[in-house]
Amino acid sequence: MSIVEHLGELRKRIIYVLVVLVLGLVVGLVCANPIYQYLISVDSAKDFELHAFSFWDGIGMYMKIAMIVSLVATIPFTAYQLWAFVSPGLREVERKAALRYVPYVFLLFLAGLAFGYYVVFPMALGFTTQVTESMGLKETYGISQYFSFLFTLVVPVALLFELPIIVMFLTKLRILNPLRLRKMRKVAYFALVFIAIVITPPDFISDFLVTIPLLVLYEFSVFLSSIVYRKQLAADAAVEARYRFPAEPQ
């Protein structure tokens, strides 16, 4: 394919993703109210009396919930479209192996959402509440502020949980390998610590409790990359042995 044909193929894949994103938003708007009722009924929210400070707060909250629902469906579909775009350049074995990663994109995103909502968010909310009470302030929160705070914490954590799959996919494409990942460990650690500090409240405990899982995810990604890399080396050795001519007798 020429460069223009590649760009046309990429454009088609992007349109598919946008269509699924819009359909996901429609489904999300239908499911927004039940999800909202659940989110305000849990222990972390039921003690708050949420207010609407503008006419658009309710609609904005529904749109944010719809966007999360849409992301749940769009992210694995995007992974599949990415695979479909690069698969013509892969061998048959690599195509089948890469396609198996797509369901795990969905599962890891859900795991990240669960970790962000049930671990990171209550921890961050408890810290901010304690600071507010220690200052003698009365808590009066708008629905927009509450859900913005919730999604700002949960969504980045869920996206970071995709790291192992991304590393395995790039290793399969021979863009990354465990040797390169180990060499860039210091830079990766710094980036992950920086991300953890940005998305958590400014206290050491919150930063620590979020940083540790991120570092574990990185090391787990290196481990998965090494498994894929060893299989690649074994396959390359087998191919080389198959086409190696026997040495001529002396």
Task: Describe this protein with a few key phrases.
single chain, mainly alpha, two-stranded parallel ribbon, 10 helices, 2 strands, transmembrane helix, translocation, Sec-independent protein translocase protein TatC
Secondary structure topology:
Blueprint: H1 3-39, H2 43-46, E1 50-51, H3 57-86, H4 92-99, H5 102-134, E2 141-142, H6 143-160, H7 163-172, H8 178-183, H9 185-199, H10 204-243
Parallel strand pairs: 1-2
Helix pairs in contact: 1-3, 3-5, 3-6, 5-6, 7-10, 9-10
Family: Belongs to the TatC family.
Membrane topology: Multi-pass membrane protein
Keywords: Cell membrane, Membrane, Protein transport, Translocation, Transmembrane, Transmembrane helix, Transport
Describe the structure.
The structure is a single chain. This protein is an all-alpha fold. It has one domain. It is 80% helix and 2% strand. A two-stranded parallel sheet has the order 1-2. The protein is flat. The model has no long low-confidence stretch (mean pLDDT 82). GO terms for molecular function: proton motive force dependent protein transmembrane transporter activity. Its main location: membrane.
